[in-house]
Write a structure and sequence with these properties.
The structure is a single chain. Helices cover about 40% and strands about 15% of the residues. It is built from 17 helices and twelve strands. The chain has a five-stranded mixed β-sheet with strand order 2-1-3-10-4, with helices on both faces. A five-stranded mixed β-sheet has the order 7-6-8-5-9, sandwiched between helices. A two-stranded antiparallel ribbon has the order 11-12. α1 links the parallel β1 and β2. The longest helix is centred in the middle third of the chain and has 17 residues. It is globular, with a radius of gyration of 20 Å.
Length: about 400
């Protein structure tokens, strides 16, 4: 398959001591539509002008991403934002000092329910009423205990008056298994990335009822993650990799490029599902999904608005860990976010590419329940929810 040729012009960084210390990198990814930036970086060879060659390493689950990052089998990865923070805290697994180099995308995830539950919601019943009427304990799946999908699912359930631990059962399943488990009747719903919601609808086993962009408009989703010692030992490499992925994200901003990327992603070494299941939602088309509002499409660049590793984004995940009782010990949350999110490195990379930078390391948002979030007091924010761990 022919690919357009990116510019081969060397950047000012590729000279003498600024050259990457490690020119060949192994990048992990999980087969989801939003792995498109790492795939584009490889297939478009965006790393060449920054002195890098990239090897893609598909992984079956987020636990595998975590384990191979920690073992050094992969150098960096397309990762759940919350995976990085969970590993930093050692929540439910090994602990290690981690780094977020940049945000790879916003939006683009969803919650799907079984056809039976989705139909009742469409008829105007509330989710809490529907679940209370059933005699069995409902099971909802997400993809990693501290990951983004767990947090979107818990936040949405709580906004519907449902405690995600007391009222239902939450389990972890790798994304490619979600629709199959829904079809077998082992799940009542799941939260994951695309194209697995499109797959569930195409196979007539479930329906998308809310997108993550409705839960938190333009929320942070996947990040470019690595161990912190990797960023410290190879700072030129980390900067060059960030620049490479910024160029890939910028390339993905046009519809024609996204359509092309959908064709690549359908390959057996990547997602391995038909382009017709990947392309529409990658382009923001959710077809006849019974959504209450127009979905916010996945964003990869938006003139750099997407990619800055805001401290407030990382702090939001820490606030939710506190909310749900995952984080009970005293922790200096702002200091932790400052150590994980590599803002100085990102500023160098974006500045070298002429990409605009925000005036502040924090940003403000309002989530679907009307609660504002600006990162200034994560502890008070966690305690402000009526539904939380006690």
């Amino acid at each position: 398959m022919p690919y357009p040729s990116p510019s081969r012009t060397a950047t000012p960084w590729i000279a003498g001591s600024d050259a990457p210390e490690k020119p060949h990198l192994r990048l992990g990814f999980v087969p989801l539509s939003d792995c498109a930036p790492v795939v584009a970086a490889k297939l478009m060879d965006f790393g060449r002008k920054h002195g890098l060659s990239i090897e893609l390493c598909r992984q079956p689950s987020w636990a595998a991403i975590r384990d191979k990052l920690l073992s050094g089998e992969i150098d960096a990865a397309h990762s759940l934002y919350g995976l990085v923070y969970g590993v930093q805290l050692g929540l439910g697994g090994p602990q290690a000092d981690m780094a977020v180099l940049m945000t790879l995308n916003q939006n683009g995830q969803a919650v799907s329910l079984s056809n039976r539950l989705a139909q009742r919601l469409r008829q105007g019943e509330s989710l809490s009423t529907v679940l209370a009427a059933d005699t069995h304990r409902h099971v909802f799946a997400q993809t990693f205990p501290t990951g983004t999908h767990a947090m979107w699912l818990y936040y949405w359930l709580a906004s519907q008056g449902i405690h995600p631990f007391n009222d239902v059962q939450s389990i972890v399943i790798p994304p490619p298994q979600m629709s199959d488990e829904l079809a077998r009747g082992r799940l009542d719903g799941f939260c994951a990335g695309e194209p697995w919601h499109a797959v569930a609808e195409a196979e007539n086993v479930g329906q998308t009822v809310v997108t993550s962009g409705e839960i938190w408009p333009d929320h942070p989703e996947k990040v470019l993650a690595c161990r912190r010692d990797f960023a410290a030992l190879y700072p030129n490499t980390a900067r060059a990799l960030t620049m490479t992925l910024l160029e890939a994200c910028r390339w993905l901003d046009t519809p024609d490029h996204r359509r092309e990327a959908a064709g690549w992603l359908s390959g057996p070494g990547l997602i391995g599902r038909a382009t017709s299941l990947i392309a529409p939602r990658l382009l923001g088309d959710y077809g006849g999904a019974p959504l209450s509002t127009s979905p916010r499409p996945v964003r990869f660049f938006a003139e750099g608005e997407v990619n800055f590793p805001y401290l407030s984004d990382g702090l939001w995940f820490l606030s939710q860990y506190r909310r749900w009782g995952m984080l009970r010990k005293p922790v200096d949350l702002p200091s932790m976010a400052c150590s994980i999110n590599q803002i100085a490195l990102y500023r160098e990379a974006a500045g070298a590419l002429g990409i605009a930078l925000p005036a502040s390391d924090m940003r403000s948002s309002v989530l679907l329940d009307g609660k504002p979030w600006d990162g200034t007091n994560p502890e008070a924010y966690a305690d402000s929810f009526a539904i939380r761990a006690r």
